[in-house]
Design brief:
The chain is of the alpha+beta class. The protein is 34% helix and 26% strand. It has an 8-stranded antiparallel β-sheet with strand order 13-12-9-10-11-14-19-17, with helices on both faces. The chain has a 5-stranded parallel β-sheet with strand order 3-2-1-4-5. The chain has a 3-stranded antiparallel β-sheet with strand order 7-6-8. A hairpin with a 2-residue loop joins strand 10 and strand 11. Helix 4 runs antiparallel to helix 5 and helix 12 packs antiparallel against helix 13. The C terminus is likely disordered.
Length: 450
Amino acid sequence: MFRKILIANRGEIALRVICACKELGIPTVAVYSEADRLSLHVRFADEAVCIGPPKSSESYLNVASIISAAEITNAEAIHPGYGFLAESANFAEVCETSKITFIGPRPEAMRLMGDKNKARKAMADLGLPVLPGSETVQSEAEAREAAEKIGFPVMVKAAAGGGGRGMRIVRSAEDLASAIQTAQAEAQAAFGSPDVYLEKYIASPRHIEFQVLGDHHGRVIHLGERECTIQRRHQKILEESPSTQLDAKTRQRVGHQVVEAMTQVGYTNAGTVEFLMDEDRNLYFLEMNTRIQVEHPVTEMVTGHDLVKRQILIAAGEPLPIEGETVMLRGHAMECRICAENPVTFAPSAGKISGFHVPGGTGVRVDTAAYAESVVPPFYDSLIAKLIVHGRNRDEAVRRMQRALEMFIVEGISTSIPIHQKIVADPDFRAGKFDTGFLTRFTSNGTSVP
């Protein structure tokens, strides 16, 4: 087992990794920017190293500073959390060169899955269903030819993208050129690559993903699916497990396909294989995230398995202790992402938290690094907490989430709590009748969600 682990991240995910390490008896090193000097992950780690000024490019994305922090503290491994360097194959390779274990998949798997277009082709070759799409398009002529072959509407997508950036819906040939140019510029700015490709657009999809784990002994398993359909601008804001759209037979069939594909790829550590579901409940491979997900707690709640501890154990060479391809799912779990945002305009709401109370009780979990008198800096993602509930069934989970949201107090800044309260009270949501456009229709029904 590792004698010391450095966490190359901040906020609630850094604190989450520290919790897992403490249970495994592993000392931890926190890294922090000057803006995070008083953060809880700094307080609860065994050691802490300042790695630069508030700007993430000069701190949490500064590979040289992070590697130096690991070397001077004699950390044997680095956990990247999610975001920042979590899906950087280059960072994983630097760790290997520096004789530091990267707690994540191998660089070659990250590089394959990091290019969305190459990942689509690889998964299609391995038997997963994919949406009709194109290779990378370089010109308007190539894009027009591909779009006519696929059929409008199409989605322009950044090959190295994620999080809704570098994406544009195109409904006619007249709009294609401007959409390509805009997506390429956005992709270059966000990911350092202008490459885009086209994919068939599904008008009213649901977003469903399978959690996988692979060890270094050739075993891969899946831990069921998560429903991540409630989104704003392609960013997930509420997740649950299991999905109301998958029966046991479908879960077994698709889960088996995922396990087979990941076994062929030689995938190790945690990852998520994401699908779009059309109105006929057909699933199509969308992309793979080669890291722990923000929404991993819902899987932990329905399976009883600590995914972060399992990541660490896998990286240390431990075999998966689970028989078969999957595990049993118990009850229903749901997560609301609580963000420091204005609930009407969605503008970021940085500042000092003057009052803070988290809900408790049976089946309620809160993952957060916020506290009363802490400051939400304007430099990073607006997520300040994840509210997770578990119930015997979906109805109990929804009711539990409703009362937990009512008992969650954050004063001094604005948060997304009012939006979540409207969502969980909505009759269509309670009935499981929604798709990725749910919030848009929610707005037209008179709520304040933009």
